[in-house]
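Task 17 of the worksheet. Students: predict the tertiary structure of the chain below and write it out as structure tokens. Keep your answer in the requested format; marks are given for formatting as well as content.
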Amino acid sequence: MKKQRVVVGMSGGVDSSVAAYLLLQQGYEVIGLFMRNWNDAAVTLEDECPWIDDSRDAMMVAEQLGIAFQVIDLSEVYKERIVDYMFNEYEMGRTPNPDVLCNREIKFDVFLQNALKLGADFVATGHYVQKQEIIVDGVTEYQLIAGLDPNKDQSYFLCQLNQFQLSKALFPIGAILKPEVRMIAEKANLATAAKKDSQGLCFIGKVRLPEFLQQQLKVKVGQVVEIEENNEKVIQHFTKIKDETLPWQNRIEKLKFTKFDGKVVGDHTGAHFYTIGQRKGLNIGGKPKPLFVLQTDVVENIIYVGQGEDHMGLYSAGLLISKEEAHWVRPSMKQMALKSSDLMCRIRYRQALFHCELLEQINGSIILIFQTPQKSVTAGQFATIYLENELIFSGVIS
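Model answer:
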């Protein structure tokens, strides 16, 4: 019987190395592919995560395993689909998540299509996430399940995958704890066994984000305005979001300041370089508590800040996702989710899950109401919904 062929996205790290190793053990024909997504070394921290070293490490593991290996240059399409999108989002005062987009647009689209041309039955990655199959009305559906290791679960980053993409995906280490992955690599004597985890953008490496953004977004000096916690708008806002008797429209209404609501405490280099909840990079001292970004206004080029990580102006009672940005991993789950009282939400990676309620407007947009107010809800980021350990929905925060 002919072996099924799997193309593994090998990043030069231990996770994808072990993924390839396990697939071989399971009897698959394995091919390793390294994705080169970026060509500009000017903004990449070459000393910490050079792509050349990563590709060499991936090739060494492939040689150890005796599998075919090649480097594929996806830098042009990466720039079009990810980098240009990032610039546009920051320019509009939103904070994008390139890793989520990279998985949807690059790894499980362009990379997947290239793998299929190589005759692959599946593609595989070293993500800490699980896939399960379920029969619904006689049709096979694919569930996106959180990784077994709660400290490494990466389901959030795969929240935009569709049924076709999941049908072609394998996640060999999703049901394994990270320390076990290291042990497997050590026992197999893989070249990447002791290599540190990468913290950079998707298959690029560590990037100097300010310099990266300044390639296209210009420095534009503006005012930093401090909002006191006893500001009338802040108090009214916090009172509304905690009042469950109010209609949801009132509770999730965004807090908006004008420069007359506070006092100027410094300058910044461009409102588009900052994001809600940000602390570093303000370079304003002399306050009893650290300053955090409460709001940015890219039109007036003003940043509004407040003292302390628990400033009331940081909190929200819910969020809005437009119809165009709403994504059901399994569309059959929609009606159940709208009626469920057991939904859990996450609005950033590694955030602890919290209870929420899902509502649908007449125009098809989705409202998420939080059981308890949440900090730093940021436009452009992804909100995700879980039912038990299955990620069922995601969308870009408006």
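Marker's comment: The domain at 5-126+172-214 is CATH 3.40.50.620 (Rossmann fold). Confidence is low (pLDDT under 50) at residues 45-49.
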